[in-house]
Amino acid sequence: MREEAGEELVRALKALLAYQLGRGAEGLLDGKVEVRRSPSTGRVREVYVNGVLVGTLRASDNVFVPTLRGAERLLKLLPHPRLRVVVPQDAAAYVARGRSVFCKHVLEADPEIRPGEEVLVVDEEGRLVAVGRAVVSGVEMVQKAAGRAVKVRRGVLREK
Predict the structure, then answer these.
(1) Which of 20, 47, 50, 56 is the most buried (most CB within 10 A)?
(2) In this structure, are 146 and 94 located in the same domain?
(3) One domain for residues 61 and 90
(4) 18-34: per-residue pLDDT in tens?
(5) 64 and 99 share a domain?
(6) Where is 66: in which H helix or E strand?
(7) At residue 105, does pLDDT exceed 90?
(8) Residues 87 and 61 occupy one common structural domain
(9) 17 with 26: CB under 8 angstroms?
(10) pLDDT over 90 for what percent of the chain?
(11) Among candidates 56, 20, 50, 26, which has minimal Cα distance to 38?
């Protein structure tokens, strides 16, 4: 069951977004914010803005994990290249189906990406292809010739 988030909770969520994703990300929560809490712990699990699920809070470490809809909004809010991993069109077709991104396919990556951080995978034209978790740093993604760069959580073409 969803509930409308109070002012204090929205402020706390915006602070979390700004800290984790960078300044400007708090704009993701502009609108009517609703949350769904865990029935057993009462902690926030899902965050909705204007009725759209924009992300979840991971239970183990309270990290905000954007959904595809949330990632689309973040692309507009965050300056290039923040949290972006750019792949060529031929690799984008596979990644969009939920396949991992390998270092040899990374054209460009935000040098501030740290391993374990949530990232946005985009094609050469800046369109969202997938969301996932960085396996290596942004600098390593560009420099390495082999190995996995991003473990994709959801691609835009993957079955829902």
Answers:
(1) 47
(2) yes
(3) no
(4) 999 988 899 999 999 99
(5) no
(6) strand 64-66
(7) yes
(8) no
(9) yes
(10) 81
(11) 56
In 23-154, where does DSSP find H-type helix?
Answer: 68-77, 89-95, 138-143
Structural domain for 147, as ranges: 80-155
Q: Could you tell me if 25 and 61 lie in one domain?
A: yes
* Coil, strand or helix at 42: coil
pLDDT at 160 over 50: no
Q: Check if the beta carbon of residue 92 is closer than 8 Å to that of residue 105.
A: no
Indicate whether 34 and 94 sit together in one domain: no
What pLDDT does residue 28 have? 93
Cβ–Cβ < 8 Å for 34, 48 = yes
Residue from 22, 158, 19 nearest 79 by CA: 22
- Give the separation between CA 29 and CA 32, rounded to whole angstroms: 8
Q: In the structure encoding, which two tokens stand for residue 20, read together?
A: 């984790």
Q: Tell me if 56 sits within 8 A of 112, measured CB to CB.
A: no
Q: Percent of the chain, pLDDT > 70? A: 98
pLDDT at residue 159 is higher than 60: no
Write out the two tokens for 84.
């972006």
